[in-house]
Amino acid sequence: MKKLALGLAAAATLAFAGAAQAQGYPTKPITMIVPFAAGGPTDIIARVVADHMSKTLGQQIVIENVAGAGGTTGITRAVTAAPDGYTIAMGHLGTFSAAPATYPGLKYDPINGMQTIGLAGGTPILIVARKNLEAPDLKAFVAAVKANPDKFNEAHAGLGSVSWTTCTLLKGILGTPKINAVAYRGTGPALNDLVSGQIDFMCDQIVSVSEQVKAGTIKAYAIASAQRSPALPDVPTTKEAGLPDYQIEAWNGIAGPKGMPKEAVDKLVDALDKALNDEGTKKRLLDLGAVLPTAEERTPAGFAALIKRDADKLTPALSAASKQ
Amino acid sequence: MSLNQIERAQGLRVRSTQDMWAGVFMIVFACVAVFMAWDLPMGSLRQIGAGMLPKSIATICGALGVILALSSLRYHGEALTPWSWRAVVHVLGGTVLFALAIRGFDLGPIHVPSLGLVIAGPLVVLFSGMAASDRSLKELVIFAAVMTFGCALLFKYGLGLPIPLAPWLLGI
Amino acid sequence: MAEMMSHLAVGFGVAFTFQNILLCFTGCLVGTLIGVLPGVGPTATIAMLLPITFGLDPTGALIMLAGIYYGAQYGGSTTAILVNIPGEATAVVTTLDGHQMAKQGRAGIALGTAALGSFFAGTVATMVIAALGAPLTRLALLFGPAEYFSLMVMGLCFAVVLARGSILKAFCMIALGLLLSTVGTDLETGQERLTFGIASLSDGIDVAVLGMGVFGFAEVLRNLETPEARDVVRAKIGRLLPNWSDIKQSINPVLRGTGIGAILGILPGNGAVLGPFASYTVEKKIADDPSRFGKGAIEGVAGPESANNAGAQTAFIPLLTLGIPPNAVMALMVGAMTIHGIIPGPQVMTKNPELFWGMIASMWIGNLMLLVINLPLVGLWVKLLQVPYRLMFPAILIFCCIGIYSVNNQPADVAFTALFGLFGYALIKLGFEPAPMLLGFVLGKLMEEKLRQALIISRGSFYTFIDYQNRPISLGLLIVAAIVLAIALLPAISKKRDEVFTE
């Protein structure tokens, strides 16, 4: 027993000495909180990016999944943690831009109450419909929906999800809150019912639906980005198809608590930039359907501006929807 | 006079304390649920509200509880057996101690930092292990150390789970 | 047929490379390990191992990840049999008779039967995927919200049959399970329901938390009550592997279980969960002596375990042929595929034949490996039962604590498991059985979701469930439900009438 105690004490001393000797940030593993269950789109992007960032930083970035309340539980934990640079989070459009309007009792302020690091990637949003819906293009679809909003069923993956957020924005722009919203647990089951024709349309990220569109089991009306996607070059943008107001992207980005040391922020920004320039990481993100962020969006200020811009865009539609 | 008639002549009395309390248990649960869900809207059939299912299922629970309690007055059944409070306190207490220690907690003025697996592991093994009637403290202490070490290796390094080991000592 | 053979030849060519066999073995080993450890599920493990697969080619990566998935299904039954802890909802049924067998000193036979049954089911399911994958896909598309709701109603009627004792108490438990399933944020309106304002309840009660509490913890509490009983269990070891008469007794249940599981596994929205329950119900209903069930009947292990494994495997069909993930693990496989540049969809089969058929072939190899890994381990597991209980239960508790914590990295979940342990202990004391409650809980969430979807789509008309022209499947399922319920209720009612006022 005595020997064991001595050994432990020696090990502890060594560990302390190690910590004291190391220079500058980071001296120990960094926790990146992913506010969703393991395996979701955000989780996968986080793991891809963190894998390369760990190499640059010389310390492991450990992914910790803290799911709950549309991702706000995990973000709350991250932005209220000690601002030492060892706790950061990967959030998305929902947790950073939409959450203040969706969750009235939100315990963090994405605009003023956290330190943004940078954008990791964006994903275009598509308006897709069951293959035998009459409307041949977006204009006809918009006209049909506006004429009889009550006759249409829209699918989404639950309150606060990307599909719900983007579709609520679409309904706000069209002025058709009366469309029947059918909630599913995840986009998989929702897509299944879209393919089998139980529901009429939904808005979702390109990566979930592109193969179905290519195979012709569902049809895509438009992509809500500025440019067409190389994955689906035949699908027009909302601007081309006659609904220029509907511009939205689902994105994922990194942030931490306010008051982090400048050294930590700089090193994280640099590591993220290096990860996004790495060929292997780039290819994996592109395969996941992501659009790589611009140089501006990779900076804390650029990312903060994006959060603010999308929050301004979403808040009116989301507030109206939750008042219903 | 058959046994049935003798029983009947004795009228209604609690013939199974287990079923009686089981019925009461269901009724209490139903009442709590109805009370909690009181403000939730029922909605309509076309657009079911958040409160419709909790309230209707709770009502069914309550009704089943009433039937169960009433049937205990007619049918014979088992009697309640005493609880083993010692086991409850140690096993569940040990688990709660683990929950409190692993990441630390704040309770009013009390602030406990994240103690990690190095503390939480032995806590749960030692505290719960005391529940066994044939316990031996020395054996338990060694076992707690071995288990904690083994679990740290297995979960933290083998499976790579982000579980804190001893943030106050090792920084991880 | 010839086409299928040539496809499988391609597949085995891919799967039988040294690297892929090694990856398959690694996956199966890791899967077995996490299956045995309570709490740590395949979803979290696959997600964590995802970056490790970056360096591999897509086929190898997917072979390893798939190995983890079905390895976990094997491992889960071990914990269910040995210590009465269902790692996942599908293992609940295995605890009923499997743990009873262990208590009678037949743990080895239960484990062996589970392994052999699973291997057989896995083999058949692999062939089903290879031969019928594409046509069976249509089945998934026939199931809309209304059909789903009727399927869940049928599942709940099965739960009544699961009960060992009083039918009335079984009804109570199902209703209680349904009630617990409504806890959490409402999917449609975002309102908090029955959460008592506690943040960690806002996403509902995790099935692992509830299952581990009412089964595992409550079992520990019950065992601590009677120190003598558990030592008797330890004394008996008995035969290690099933003998010929055990196998003969299990053949038919395995065949039926495989069929039931394979069909339910294809359905989207986690239809595979129903497989073991349905198989158990069938076995109990057609048995000569149903009263043996719940007391260590080998059919009650063989059937459900086969159904579980068959369903786990055929759940790949919607993913591989439609590109639609039917459950959380499959959703993760979509991520794993896309990360390697393959977007699952209707075209995977033609665009990446080596990957498609290689993966299918590796499933069979994986099942064989699991048998090779698991049968020798049976002796080890049974020896584990000889650890004195005074050390065994603290070990169970620390594994459960770490496992539960790692699901969401929330300490509150651990505390809630303790609370549900108390709840489960109260249920035991009151003569309630937790199995129907857990089924009610699992089905409750799906049922409410599907009911609301169906009624929104039908604009509030219940006729949609019995619309024989447009939805014959839904009507058929409801009729089966009614028949099952009648069969279960009638003898109970007449029996109760005889029992009035007699001791």
TrEMBL record, chain A:
Record has Signal as a keyword: yes
Membrane-crossing residues?
Answer: none
In terms of superkingdom, the source organism counts as Bacteria
Q: Which UniProt keywords apply?
A: Receptor, Signal
Q: Which residues form the signal peptide?
A: 1-22
Q: What family does the entry list?
A: Belongs to the UPF0065 (bug) family.
What name does the UniProt record give this protein? Answer: Tripartite-type tricarboxylate transporter, receptor component TctC
User: To which species is this protein native?
Assistant: Bosea robiniae
Automatic annotation (TrEMBL), chain B:
What's the protein called, per UniProt?
Answer: Tripartite tricarboxylate transporter TctB family protein
Q: Any keyword DNA repair?
A: no
**What residues does the DUF1468 domain cover?**
21-164
Keywords, A to Z, come to: Membrane, Transmembrane, Transmembrane helix
Q: What parts of the sequence cross the membrane?
A: 21-40, 52-71, 83-102, 114-133, 140-159
Among Pfam families, the record links this protein to: TctB (PF07331)
Automatic annotation (TrEMBL), chain C:
Pfam families reported for this sequence:
TctA (PF01970)
Q: Which InterPro entries match?
A: DUF112_TM
Spell out the protein name for this chain. Tricarboxylic transport membrane protein
Which organism was this protein described from?
Bosea robiniae
Q: Which residues form the signal peptide?
A: none
Provide the alphabetized UniProt keywords: Membrane, Transmembrane, Transmembrane helix
Q: Where is the DUF112 domain?
A: 21-439
Query: Where are the bilayer-spanning segments?
Result: 12-37, 49-72, 109-132, 139-161, 324-343, 355-381, 387-407, 473-493
